[in-house]
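Weekly modeling sync, notes
Attendees: S.R. (lead), two postdocs, one rotation student

Agenda item 3: backlog of single-chain predictions. S.R. asked that every request posted to the team notebook include the full sequence so nobody has to chase files. The rotation student volunteered to paste the first one in as an example of the format we agreed on. Action items at the bottom.

Example entry:
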Amino acid sequence: MLISICSSPLLPFLDYPTMMSDTDNPIFSIDLHVHTSRYSECAESLDPRLIENYAKNAGLHAIVITEHDTMWKNEEFEELQAQMSSVMLFNGIEVTTSTGHHLVILGVEPNTSLPKGMSCDDAIFTAQEQGGVAILAHPYRKGLPPLHTIEKVDAIETASTSLSQKETELSSHLAESLGKPAIGCSDAHALTRIGWSYTQFPHYPRNTKHLCQMIRKGLGNPVLPEHFF
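Predicted structure, as returned to the notebook:
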């Protein structure tokens, strides 16, 4: 059983060709933060070729792959997508900034310069310059970046396997107090963690830019397992 930790109004379902089998369900469920063994050493057991079955079992329609400080090249990403029959993939990155804070970035080209150790502000600017989004990952795990930096992000991760119950509550309060969209995801480093938490959207995204737009508009509704509490 899942519970919602944030509410958002449901809008009419966008009629767009998809790989979804449940066409009567207007909700699009996506795990926005998943690592794999391809480029994240700490996820050595998460074989990207096995993502689909675990995502389907979790009721997900899509996964965002966010390797540490690396993005998949277009060709290899397209090759991986071609192996999936019912789960959509998006290519992202988790950037380790100079202060040790992490940003999940989506909507930038794979050749974009987002090196480990760059400043939070520069990483956020780079993402937004391309029409992408920068999400503050697992707040409070290592303290918060300066307020002026948090105010620049597009969304805040309020639920993941990297957050304790208390950190989840604090992160949710932070997002609410700053008027930032709240995001739920797994931060999975193992296959069984995929979909532990995720975000529901009222539309199927036409492409990555459309997904970024929905995130910025706060159309996502984060959910996580009830037993977490």
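Discussion: group reviewed the output briefly. The helical segments are 51-57, 74-82, 120-129, 147-150, 165-178, 208-216.
Action items: rotation student to repeat for the remaining queue; S.R. to check formatting next week.
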